[in-house]
Amino acid sequence: MKLPLGKLRNDVLRDVVFSNLGVEDVRIVYGPREGFDAAVLEYDHEHYLVVATDPVLGVPGETFGFFAYHFAASDVAVFGARPRWLVVDILLPPGREVGFLEKTMRDLNTECRKYGSSIIGGHTGVYPSVSEPTATTTAFGIVRKGDLRIPLAEPGDRIVVTGKVGLEFAVSAAYFREKELRKLLSFREISRLRRSFRFETVVPEALAARPFVRGMHDATEGGLTALHEIADNSGLGFTVHAEKLWLDPVVGRVLDFYGIEPWSVSSTGTLIAIVPPEKSNSLITELQKNGIPAFEIGEFTADKKRVLIENGEERAFPTFKSDPYVGLYGKGLTSP
């Protein structure tokens, strides 16, 4: 069996990866598992250490340093920890100008100073086997044990999402498919999308949301189909009301242009919050005070059905088969 493009599917993770994890360690509180994008280790009697790692590749050059911080830092923040330390590997192809590295490091430094993080190590080099700039960042954060947030739900918990569903796809299309999008969008709209890569993070909203939520998840590859992983791990079902989902109008037009539903498209920077019902309105108000639009779109249920209600009709909530985001880089995605 050949591995498909993109993130490994859960069955491969279970059969190949999770069965080869070395020795057991009593300090591991949460190790590798489906739907958990960070590990949690015992740090001391009062704190946990949260660790996450993520690659950065296939992104526009001007965004490289920003994502080298935020991809991994977001996975730490959704567990309730402020990203504190980073280890960053940067691998470059032959011929890359030093100016690219200078901008990458300036952008990394800017994000570290913004959130109080330090780069403590890594590796940087140029290698002939590397065809495009690639980074791998491991982020670490410390959280008080009572403040840890894990992506598990209880019956009745509300599903709140921030207003960035589909943004990652639309931004990437503005970079990689600009010629196509000129059929649909104005120069100003395409320029706005290209600048919007700075919203592809959940670090600020996750830190603001921590007092109100039971758990959180970043809707990266597969988008809102991450709800299935949360429900699987919690032994629950869920109901989502399509009319409650808000899309940026320009993002909605891009998705329609490519015939893509918003439910399974990669949406890095979209926070999925698992919220006790009595705290849902307070969370939405807090996020909006911080300039972050958020909306309650459904709830988790003791009934294990996963339902999408759309135009008054029920259907099964989509599952993650493939992410149209991957097709932006090749011939796997066509415009009308």
Short description:
By secondary structure, the chain is of the alpha+beta class. Helices cover 29% and strands 25% of the residues.
* Named CATH architecture of the largest domain: Alpha-Beta Complex
Judged by helices, strands and strand pairing, the structural class is: alpha+beta
- Beta-strand residue fraction: 25-35%
Order of helices and strands: HEEEHEHEEEHHHHEHEHEHEEE
Low-confidence stretches: none
CATH topology of the largest domain: Phosphoribosyl-aminoimidazole Synthetase, Chain A, domain 2
Please list the strands of the largest sheet in the order they lie side by side. Answer: 8-10-7-11-9-12-13
CATH class of the largest domain: Alpha Beta
User: What's the helical proportion of residues?
Assistant: 25-40%
Q: How many DSSP helices?
A: 10
Q: Span between N and C termini?
A: 32 Å
The total number of structural domains is 2
The CATH homologous superfamily of the largest domain: PurM-like C-terminal domain
Outline the structure in words.
The structure is a single chain. This protein is of the alpha+beta class and 336 residues long. The protein has two domains: 24-147, 60s Ribosomal Protein L30, Chain: A; 158-329, Alpha-Beta Complex (Phosphoribosyl-aminoimidazole Synthetase, Chain A, domain 2). The protein is built from ten helices and 13 strands. The strands form two sheets. Strands 8-10-7-11-9-12-13 form a seven-stranded mixed sheet, sandwiched between helices. A six-stranded mixed sheet has the order 1-2-3-6-4-5. Strand 1 and strand 2 form a beta hairpin. It is globular and about 55 Å long. The protein starts with 9 loop residues before the first helix and ends in a 20-residue tail after the last strand. The mean pLDDT is 94.
